[in-house]
Amino acid sequence: MGAASPRQMRPRSPVEQVIRAIDRTLEYIEVTIVAGSIILMALIMVTHVLGRMMFRIGVPGRTEVTELLIVLITFVGVSYAVRRARHISMSAIYDTLRGPARKTMIVLISVGTGALLFYMAWEAAGYVETTYNRGRSTSALNIPLWMIYISMPIGFTLAGIQYWLTAFRNLTSPEFYRSFTELEGYDEVPDAAQQSEEQPKQ
Fold it and tell me: Which residues cross the membrane (predicted)?
């Protein structure tokens, strides 16, 4: 067996263990909500199509439910994307930095983005409160809109926490982290010369 990496050899502090346990719990909840919403949306669409073909009767409120599920998937998925570092990043300047400058940049980006997401969560919470006070609901199924829109402030808040956890991880670890659990790294792309050498001779 190979030697253990510095990441594996470094003992985890009690605070880090608690954070990781909470993070895993939140990830499980997010995956369950996103996967369940996608499956439910697929079932609704399939049932609607089969009902129209066989009985000429579709699923009432199909459009409303799928639109609400898309909202739920989008904002709950924001936090999951940040946790797994699967979000879009513009790193032209960041990729040119090395050493302390690179570490400082990733910390500033994480703290700043987290703060922005918390501000968006605050604004989204105000919108949800307004929607609740006005008693707005869907037209066909009469579903209260605030029950779905509440995913916006929750998703923004969880994503903001993830960015701040990324900053915490980079401040307390010698390695570079794209998220609290994901080390920084890119897949190596072979150059043309290497590809030509690997091709079998005709």
Answer: 28-50, 65-83, 104-122, 142-165
What is the structure's pLDDT at 11? 59
Distance (Å, whole) CA 88 – CA 138: 33
Average pLDDT of span 100-124: 91
Sign of CA dihedral 119, 123, 124, 128: positive
Secondary structure (3-state) at 144:
strand
| Residues 6 or more apart whose Cβ sits within 8 Å of residue 118 | 156, 157, 160
Burial letters 148-158, b for 16+ CB under 10 A, else e: bbbbbbbbbbb
Q: Give strand pairing partners of 183.
A: 177
Beta-bridged to residue 137, according to DSSP, are 144
- The domain segmentation of the chain, as residue ranges, is 14-184
DSSP conformation class of 95? G
- pLDDT confidence of 199, banded at 50, 70, 90? low
Helix crossing, 14-54 with 151-172: angle to 10°? 140
Helix (H, G, I), strand (E, B) or coil at 183: strand
Could you tell me the two tokens for 167?
Answer: 């900053």
Q: Which of 163, 75, 44 is nearest to 171 (CA)?
A: 163
CA Rg value for the chain: 23
Average pLDDT over every residue of 119-145: 91
By the 8 A CB rule, do 14 and 171 touch? no
